[in-house]
Design goal:
By secondary structure, this protein is mainly beta. The chain is built from one helix and ten strands. The protein has one domain: Metal Binding Protein, Guanine Nucleotide Exchange Factor, Chain A, CATH 2.170.150. The longest helix is centred in the N-terminal third of the chain and has 7 residues.
Length: 140
């Protein structure tokens, strides 16, 4: 028996989604682009295979935030929901805080630590990577 799908959605409830199975990874991101898109000092993402994800409510609005990057959000309340990039063509990233049960996933590290805000104090022992991906080097 597999893991039940995780459901989530936006603040107003118009845009909903399901993600099947366990994510490929879960991490806190400190990059400037994610900060701007979310209005938060960092965000927590879960990476899934695109075929494990489906929209179940009204469709989101899409925004190409930079070359090769597609971000989806609710057209009514503006909640950011997903991220896709040609850099990781076999992944769709979900903002963990938009899950109905965000505590069902535990982050395993910090990525883009090289861009973190100096005033944000992190008290966990998770690994911190200067960037992300196979070429990421631990920064701490």
């Amino acid at each position: 028996m597999g893991v039940a799908p995780r459901s989530g959605g936006c603040l107003c409830g118009v845009v909903r989604y399901d993600a099947a199975g366990d994510p490929l990874w879960v991490a806190h991101c400190h990059c400037a682009s994610c900060r701007k898109a979310s209005g938060a000092p960092m965000v927590t993402w879960a990476g899934y295979k695109p075929n494990a994800f489906k929209w179940t409510g009204s469709g989101p609005k899409q925004f190409s935030s930079s070359e090769g990057v597609l971000r989806c959000f609710c057209p009514d309340c503006g909640t950011p929901l997903t991220y896709e990039s040609t850099r990781w063509p076999d992944e769709l990233h979900i903002l963990v805080a938009t899950l109905d049960d965000p505590e069902s996933l535990t982050p395993r590290g910090h990525v883009y630590w090289s861009e973190h805000l100096a005033w944000l104090e992190i008290g966990d022992d998770l690994p911190k990577f200067a960037e992300t991906g196979a070429s990421a080097q631990k920064d701490d």
